[in-house]
Amino acid sequence: MPPSAPGPVGRRIAYYRASARPRMTQQQLADAAHVALGTIRKIERGERGLTDDTLDAIAAALGVDPSRLVADREPVSSRVRDQLPALSAAIAAYDVPEDGPVRALPDLRSAVAQTTAWRLSAQYLQIARAVPDLLTELARAAAGSPPEDAQEVAALLVAAYRSADAVAYKYGARDLSARLVELMRWAAPAAQDPLLTASVGYVRTETFFAAHAHAAGLRALEQAIDVCPASVTPQAVAARGALHMRAAVIAGRAHQGDAADAHLLEARALGDQVREGVYQGTAFGPDSVRIHEVSVAVSLGGDHVRRAFDVAREWAPPASLPAERRSGFYVELARAQLWGGFADDAFESLKVARRIAPQHTREHPWVREDAATLRRLKRADAETLTNFAEWCHAD
């Protein structure tokens, strides 16, 4: 699309920035959207238009759908789904890519790193637009790379598949997601990196969540833990710790409380050994473990919500954590609050989740379910709640 015209768009951006709680400065918006401060100032003054990429980045930073900034713009969810056929076509030809150019390895490395950054910040539209062509290019690179580059190209391919899977999984394309996970498992051995293999085991759990095959997912994770390298480096500690975090959650879903507690204890001990950070594309550290304590409490069911409240009472996710993970914390806390009878608090948590990562929040099935429940519990004319429920397509 051509750049959006200046004027009304700039005024809407300025309005949503000033309306944010807490109020967002132009510098904070520029930092969150990865846009120059001078560009933000010119856009808000109506002195320049903005491209699709810039508009989407600003909307994500403001916690609003881009359609709120441009009156005739389709919602993000529709635009993401429009890209799924191109993604399907790209992975269908994973071993027989069309001929075409291949960028130098540093450029491919940068492009994949960008998709990972988008995944961690829950900017799925950007991934959906970029990743089909990137996967095709990486497939060409894998087929023709010299031996000294083959391992890194394979690792880049796994990372790109993971970003693509985030889009497929979040937007309900479960078969496509499962296919992408299998391609990750296919590509990972060529990278000859056991820590990368551990990260693939972490992502694979999505297929078990989607199928409600929680006991089987727990077995798969415990097998991945068994073959994970010893915790002698921060990267290895994080790999093992992330597997224990996810095992704790899926054990809770399998109603295996003792196993959930045991894995959470292991994750907590490992989390204390490293700084919070992103390792092999997965956030891990003390803060991530705390978020998973809430996840485990919600996974175990309504009788365990007090554990979630105990975490939230004294702690909140710092802004330095990836947006997707922070948003997930508030989505799960909202469910615990709803089960505990704190409907108003639950709605506030959902609104916080939306401000942090609107694309992630809008497509989360629990958000739809809980917004529908809140709508039934509150007055039918509660405008703010009604607007939220309509925004996330709650029944």
Explain what this protein looks like in three dimensions.
This protein folds into four domains: 8-13 and 16-21 and 25-30 and 34-68, lambda repressor-like DNA-binding domains (434 Repressor (Amino-terminal Domain), Orthogonal Bundle), CATH 1.10.260; 74-192, no CATH class; 193-315, Alpha Horseshoe (Serine Threonine Protein Phosphatase 5, Tetratricopeptide repeat); 322-395, no CATH class. Strands 1-2 form a two-stranded antiparallel ribbon. The chain has helices spanning 8-19, 26-33, 37-44, 52-62, 76-92, 105-120, 124-144, 147-170, 174-191, 194-211, 214-227, 234-253, 257-271, 286-300, 305-314, 323-339, 343-356, 358-362, 365-377, 383-391; strands at 277-279, 282-284. α8 packs parallel to α10, α10 (194-211) runs antiparallel to α11 (214-227) and α17 (343-356) packs antiparallel against α19. It has 395 residues and is mainly α. The two termini are 33 Å apart. The chain is built from 20 helices and two strands. A hairpin with a 2-residue loop joins β1 (277-279) and β2. The radius of gyration is 21 Å and the shape is globular. The model has no long low-confidence stretch (mean pLDDT 92).
How many distinct domains?
A: 4
At the fold tier of CATH, the topology name of the largest domain is Serine Threonine Protein Phosphatase 5, Tetratricopeptide repeat
**Based on the structure, what is the oligomeric state of the protein chains?**
single chain
- What is the terminal-to-terminal distance? 33 Å
DSSP E strands, number = 2
